[in-house]
Specification:
Distance between the termini: 77 Å
Structural class: mainly alpha
Largest sheet: 3 strands, antiparallel
Radius of gyration: 20 Å
Helix content: over 70%
Shape: elongated
Number of domains: 1
Order of helices and strands: HHHHEEHEEEH
């Protein structure tokens, strides 16, 4: 009976980790949209956020990368790049989580692809094994997402100050 309880707890922890990764990635996608709006100084309108949210996260990342190339201050450019890199890493694990099967392997949950293209891409011919993603990797992705959320808040605050200063200067001219 104690073994069954231990397995039930392990299963709950695993599924909670998967759910947490998906939810934190949703929050990160919303923040990514806010960063795009703020960094690009798009202003505010009622429909702006819903329109930006319709963009795939990879498109928002491309927009930020392209804009970062035009930021002359190296620390600010690095801040955008670091944020985007973290978001990309988290999105990779979110996609793996949502598009692979959880498999109980040697008493541990792993995520393993089943689609033919993914199987062929992840097969290790030398070891005759299929690469899989561990729950530990998902927990690391959650930590990266938390760090990205903090970096995103810093970006938003910094660029809001810059945008406010630019607005002041524009009214003085």
């Amino acid at each position: 009976m104690a073994t069954k309880k231990l397995n039930d707890d392990r299963n709950k922890d695993t599924f909670a980790t998967i759910g947490e990764l998906i939810l934190i990635t949703n929050a990160l996608d919303y923040q990514l949209a806010e960063v795009v709006i703020t960094v690009l100084n798009l202003g505010r309108s009622l429909m702006l956020m819903p329109v930006v949210m319709t963009l795939d996260p990879s498109r928002k990342i491309e927009i930020l990368k392209a804009h970062a190339a035009h930021v002359s201050q190296p620390d600010w450019k690095r801040g955008i790049s670091n944020f985007v890199d973290k978001v990309e890493r988290v999105l990779k694990y979110r996609n793996i989580t949502c598009h692979t099967q959880p498999i109980l392997q040697k008493g541990e949950w792993t995520l393993r692809p089943f689609a033919a293209a993914k199987v062929l891409k992840n097969i290790d011919l030398k070891k005759k094994t299929l690469k899989s993603v561990t729950i530990r990797e998902l927990r690391d992705a959650i930590s990266t997402a938390e760090s990205a959320l903090g970096a995103g808040v810093n970006l938003i605050e910094n660029f809001q100050q810059v945008n406010a200063e630019l607005a002041k200067r524009a009214t003085r001219s």
